[in-house]
Amino acid sequence: MTTVSTAWRGWTDGGAVGRTEESDEVDLQLHRAHSARMYDYFLGGTTNFAADREAAGQAMAVFPWARTAAREYRAFMHRSVRALAGLGLDQFLDIGTGIPTSPNLHELAQQANPRARVVYTDNDPVVLAHAQALLRSAAAGRTAYLQADATDPERILASEEVRSTLDLGRPVALSLNALLHFVPGEEQARAIVEHFKEVLPSGSTLAISHGTTEFAPAETERVIQVYAAAGTPVRMRGRAEIARFFDGWQLLDPGLVAVQRWRPDTPPSSVSDAEVSGFAAVARKP
Predict the structure, then answer these.
(1) What is the C-alpha to C-alpha distance for residues 83 and 77, in angstroms, rounded to an integer?
(2) Domain that holds residue 185
């Protein structure tokens, strides 16, 4: 049985790394497929195991564009971070971080502004095991990692990691990338987003990418079944449902569009909507 401490907490400030450890351990369940490791496999990463590769193969058998979709979701994160850093955002809160794949969000933000501060949050012990890879901040900035569940936004915002890294009196760029389709309850998903939206100050931004069945209904329905069989329920949502997550906030150009089409200042993508089967947008709080 492969285990990892569940209480590892780390941060970097001026290049120094600190952490606390407790003895609680969690079984990484390498014999079972995990969505984060499957995503890593789709991206060409190495933090995946036989069960993950088997489930990923089953997903690609029914949704042959799975690798393309994963790369486009990741590319949306890159473009949105660069765009927001270009607008002067220097504080980022990334919920549902996933297994580290460089360039990470903090690398992109700190390329634009070395003083940028980033908090990563995930509930996955696999991510926790690799958290140290996230903690190589630029000397002038700061990067922190918190193990917490997206379904508990109050705890995230009240955590020492968030409070000591981010100034919640100033605008924060919140990222919920490829996360909410793993929250199957409609009321629960809305409640998570609304809690963050209420607490974050004016000028904050919200970036969401989210799967949908609208572009390739048969293929996406089948891939939902593959994930369910692997123990991960998935709830794809339509454009109107995803749009409601942004209620009351101002969408930035180009609005709510297919993931690969969110390109405020780069050439159009040749990837089809069906190949990605997701929507994405960024909005700002008035």
Answers:
(1) 10
(2) 3-284
